[in-house]
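User: quick one, fold this
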Amino acid sequence: MYSTVHDAGEVDDVLQDICVRVISKIDTLREPERFRPWLAVLARRQALRYRQQSAKKPVRLSKDMAETRCDESAPRLLENMERQEKYRQILGAIRMLPEKYREVFMLNYSSDLTYAQIAEILDIPVTTVQIRLVRARRMIYDRVTSPERKQVRET
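Assistant:
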């Protein structure tokens, strides 16, 4: 979900939209044992719709986002900032993945789906899921640990 929407704050809105769609479309499910892949496809489509709609809206910064506060717990804040920076690097690397790799990566790590279920959702062979997942991991690793990134941080 996050891989499509790109905003953790908006994921809740998308999930609400998905719940409404599930309720209104549940009667179209012909095979109850295939609920999970059906739901995943429905969620993916709804997230893509949401992303297209939100791309048209202007982004506004809240007052909290614009202000930076500092208190006496600076060491803990510094540690949290470093951790958040690492998360940002990883999320940035995930965002930079080509969509076909990002989809497989996010379905695997955020949905607890088997390779077979991911293959069914994306309508690709299981071996393709495995290959894309390996390549996605490698691209993320390379992006986060690249020498250029380390040189930029050191200077």
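User: anything notable?
Assistant: The two ends are 35 Å apart (CA to CA).
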